[in-house]
Amino acid sequence: MSENTTEVIVGTGVLLLAAGFLAYAGQIGGWRGPGGDSYTITASFRSADGVSVGSDVRIAGVRVGTVSDLTLDPATFRAQTTLTLDRAVVLADDTAAIIASEGLLGGNFVELLPGGGVFDLEAGAEIVDTQGAVSLMNLLLKYVTGTGQ
């Protein structure tokens, strides 16, 4: 009987520890559970190089959402992104979206530049003013060859 009680106590401890790790991973990953505290908008980029599903969406360096989908539009050959944003973030309809880099060795993320428009972006709306990723190799080649202006 003593062995069985010890196994139950150790098993319960392992399950509680696993649940704690899952809760921590959910917080770090930005999972918020089954709630309506977020909404999605879309943006189309010429190049979304370095951005993938799960990449940050930031305003002024503060994380306000994530990239939830990234597909190629077969008609325009542009990267169609779906951005999931916190419900508390209200954006004007003239907001711009750019692919920005965290630095030379850092990853890329989507930076939102809020506009000053009178109307707000609704859930499911599209950001029209976008700027794709800038290739560091292309910039270096333009500098080295002297073809850039």
Automatic annotation (TrEMBL):
Organism this protein belongs to: Aquimixticola soesokkakensis
One of the protein's GO biological processes: phospholipid transport
Domain Mce/MlaD positions: 38-115
InterPro entries: ABC_MlaD (IPR030970), Mce/MlaD (IPR003399), MlaD_Phospholipid_Transporter (IPR052336)
Superkingdom in the source lineage: Bacteria
Descriptive protein name: Putative phospholipid ABC transporter-binding protein MlaD
